[in-house]
Amino acid sequence: MSPQPQRRNAELVRAATITATADRNRRRNRRSPLTALPFAVAATAVAAGTALHTTPTAVAVAGVAIAAVCGDVAVTRRPLTPQDRGSARLAVLTTAGIVLAAATAPLSLRFGLVVTAVAVAASWRIGRHPTTRRRKRTGELAEAWPQAAATVGHPELTLNGPVIDRGVEGYTYRVMVPAGKTIEFLDRLAGPLASALGLRADQVQTELDPDWNRLGAVHIREADPRDSTGELVDVTVDTVADPIPVGPYADGKPFNLHMFIDEFGAISGMAAGDMGSGKSSLVVRILKVWRRTPDVVVLFADGANGRDFGIWKNSFFRYTTEPREFLAWVKILGQFADNREREMARQGWRVWKPSATHPVVVLKVEEMSKFGNSPYGSEIAQGLGRLASRSRAIGLIIFGLTQYPVGLNALGPDVRRGMANRVQFRDGENGSMILSALPPRQIRAAENGTFYAETRDENRRMTAQVFWTPDDERPAIITDWESRDYTAFAVEWAAAERRTPPAAAAGNTRRPQPDPDSGDEQLFAGGPAAATNTVEGQVLAVVPTEFPPIRPLPARGPELTYDEADREFRVLLREHGQVTSRHVEQAVGWRRGRVRRELIAPAIDAGWLTPTTDTHGDRIYTPVPEWLRAERAAR
Q: Is-annotated flag, keyword Transmembrane helix (predicted)?
């Protein structure tokens, strides 16, 4: 990461830390005079022991009495609870007693009284110090862990080091995962551990160490993680190279999305999830952070026909809902890339250097499947595939959004392969994932805006939450985007547009279906260049015809138990050498999400099953040769 984003990231994290500390200080109870009185006791005792031996005892007694009365009045006037007020008065009387004893005692005893007072004050202060109290708390938590592990039936789950106190956010147990277990094992224990520790289920998060799969972490959340990142909600960035604080992880650490890095270039991305899972909220969050960023321009291809972003259409440099116009953009961007590469060669740049006059271009594609499955889909996929290999250097960010299972490969495998930023929202157990590894758990239906993320530098396998942008804030954001001046960039765009040939008719043989709302009742539309000639004739006979299916599709079998399903899974691998999740789903009668969690993921983590992707983007699971030979030999 270049120094500038690092500094900006550090500033954002520092601001969040300062805010969390201020919130923690505000939540503390008002301190009583007990905090300062021990030091006053020691100072007064020393002064009395050194000076009052030459002063008449009556004067000392009178002075101490007056000081005690003044102290009691001060305590009474303080807005303290009755318990704190009583303790403070007791401390005042104790102080007065020690001073009187030091003043009236023989000279030989005064030094002992002074030392005793100082020792009592010091020990009391050490016991009340936040560090001591935090150490005592973590020690108590560590002592309670074996009982909690035994309660959930896994006493072998031992701690690996002291409990980490994260302050207002909560604390973390570092545990040793038993041999042969995975993050799935820890995740299944989250609910029972929450019950054993007397917490809510959503307060417990699990995480596996990326470098050593025997070391895990159980994060206990005592406060809403958004409290510690509240300062980041309304943040804006000055340049596209600054990270975008999307939202907090479950442990309170902010998730920062990098879409451009100096000396590296543009980073494309993709977000996938069910309808209503939070994809549009992510885009609105990015637009909110970029609302005052001068070196970024957005082209928006809306495959949802303006459902969520129709009101934003005047905010972007270009906006369309038509596949044909989107194809024209792709062709213009091809010439645009040529122009920028020539400029970079002339300037001696390795990657594009964004500015207000020559900004980074962000191509956002909502519902990619509409454009990929349109009559122009093959040309769009080819054009974007060529752009994907050049986008990093020329300052072009392609960011797609899709529901699944449709749409993941709608714009071609080259585009998907180049998307290093991947955000996975709730998938509804449809089984199509854009992440490189299965997440530790399924996101629940009620967790809108919750996601897993993989970026170029980070893959925590922990859920995060998008900062929600209220509807009443969006008009102001739209106004900021509409007030942008695109004059300088329009010149660069027009130069590329002049050198681009116009988009032709659909380049494939698929005919577009008639729009049911257009009133067109023609059953066999001819597409953009439909012929007007028709053939008239007379129907002589109607012969019923049955077409056999192209390939048999077996019905899903009855749902098996885990042992039966595991045995059937191994039989499929042994007989066929490789399987897909659909094959396993049909054989064991389970839904695809359960097949992934309980059969496929443990086998991958154990190291004897390898996932690969074919040319169509489908996942194929192949056992390692040693395992396959051993299984076949055993039979």
A: yes
Give the pLDDT confidence score for residue 409 in this predicted structure.
Answer: 64
Q: What percent of the chain is modeled with pLDDT above 70?
A: 65
Confidence bin at 576 (pLDDT 50/70/90): confident
For 183, other C-beta atoms within 10 Å of its C-beta total 22
> Quick one: which H or E segment has residue 319?
strand 318-320
Q: Which residues does 464 contact at the CB level (< 8 Å), separation at least 6?
A: 246, 247, 248, 249, 250, 255, 450, 451, 452, 453
Provide the angle, in degrees to the nearest 10, between the axes of the packed helices 562-576 and 625-634: 100
For residues 609 and 572, what is the distance between their CA atoms, to the nearest angstrom? 13
**Residue 56 to residue 59: CA distance in whole angstroms:** 6
89 in the Ramachandran plot: left (φ > 0), alpha (ψ -120 to 50) or beta? alpha
In what side-by-side order are the strands of the sheet with 215-221?
164-165, 170-176, 215-221, 204-208
Residue 82 CB partners (closer than 8 Å, separation 6+): none
Helix, strand counts (H, E) of the chain: 22, 18
How would you classify the pairing of strands 360-366 and 296-302?
parallel
Q: Which amino acid is at 520?
A: D
DSSP state of 189: T
The radius of gyration computed from the CA coordinates of the chain, to the nearest angstrom, equals 34
Signed CA dihedral, 370, 371, 372, 376: sign only: positive
pLDDT tens digits, residue range 178-215?
Answer: 877 776 777 778 778 888 877 776 678 777 776 676 78
Q: Over the chain, what is the mean pLDDT?
A: 75
Mapped onto helix, strand or coil, the DSSP state of residue 454 is: strand
Domain architecture of the chain: domains with CATH: 33-128 (no CATH), 132-223 (3.30.980.40), 266-496 (3.40.50.300), 562-634 (1.10.10.10)
pTM for the structure as a whole: 0.56
pLDDT in tens, 164-179: 877 666 788 888 888 7
Q: In which residue are the tokens 């547009």 written?
A: 497
The CA-based dihedral angle spanning residues 569, 570, 575, 579, taken in that order and rounded to the nearest 10 degrees: 50
Contact 52, 103 (CB under 8 A): yes
Spatial distance between the Cα atoms of 53 and 32, rounded to a whole number of angstroms: 32
Q: What is the pLDDT of residue 523?
A: 32
Map residue 310 onto helix, strand or coil: helix
Report the first-to-last Cα separation within the chain, whole angstroms: 53
